[in-house]
Amino acid sequence: MDTKSVILVGAGMDVGKRRQGCRMGPDAYRVAGIAEALSDLGHTVTDLGDTRPDTVDMPLHDHLFALPECVGWTLALNRVAQQAAQQGLPIFLGGDHALSMGTVSGMSAHAQQIGRPLFVLWLDAHSDFHTPNSTGSGNLHGTPVAYFTGQPGFDAFPALDAPIPTDRVGMIGLRSVDPAERAALEKDRAMLADMRSIDEHGIKAPLMAFLDRVRAANGILHVSLDVDFLDPAIAPAVGTTVPGGATEREAHLAMELLHESGLVCSLDLVELNPFLDERGRTAKLMVDLAASLLGRRIFDRITRSF
Fold this sequence. Notes:
alpha/beta; 16% strand; globular
C-alpha cells in the first residue's frame, strides 16, 4: 500500500450554528484513536494540534449568527490548509461544517499553485448551498458550498483565490435540501445523488462516475464527510440528524472506492457533537471510515464492542 504523510489539524469550530458541542470533536477523534488507526496502516501521522480563529474586527450581524467568528475561522483554516497541504494529506478534525469555507478554499488555492483542478465530494444529508441572503436560520454551517463556489452574498468573507466551479462538486447522500437551495442547484451542474438514487442504483454508480470526471481532468479531490451523511441509528452524535442516511456498509464501500482511486488529497470530518454520542460510537465509526479511506479494507477492521 502507498503510504502517506497524514497531517491532523484540529478545527473545533463551533460558531456555524447555535447548538454547541462540535468544539469537542477534535479531542473525541483523538481519543477514538485516529492517529493510531492511520499509523497502524503504515502512514506517518503528524498532529498539528488545534487551530485558533483569527481575530476579526467587524460588527455583529442582525441575522447571521457569529459572523465575525466565522470569518476569523475561515481566514485561519484557509492559511493552515495551504500550509498542511505542502506537507502531506491534511485531515481536518471538526468542528461544524462552516469550517469547510476555510479548508476547501485553502485546498483550492493549493491546487491552483500546483496546476491541478480541485474537485469536492460532499457527503452530507444537506447541500449547504445557502448564501447569507437566503439562509432562514442565519446559521453559516449551511453556506460553505455556496461560498467556495463563488456565489454572491459573501462580501464579509475573504475573497477567493480560486473559486471552484459548481460542476466540480459532487454531492452524495442528500435528503434535506431547502427550496432556495434546490432552486439554485437546479441552475448549476453539480453532481447530485440523493438517497433515493442510492436506493435505486447503489452508492457505487454515482461515486465512480464522479471519480471518472476527476481523473479525466487530472484533478485532485477534497472529501468533506459530515456525520449526518450516515443514518442516525449508527451515528447519533450530530445535531442535524435526518433519518434514512447511508448505512455503515455503504459508507465503508465509498471510502474503499475513494482509496482505490488514488485521487484524494484532503479530508474534512465534520459535525461530530460528542455531547450527543453514545459511548463514543460515532467518533469510532468516523475514525474507522477515515481508516478505510486510507487503505484499511473491511476484513482488516478491528472488531469493536460498544
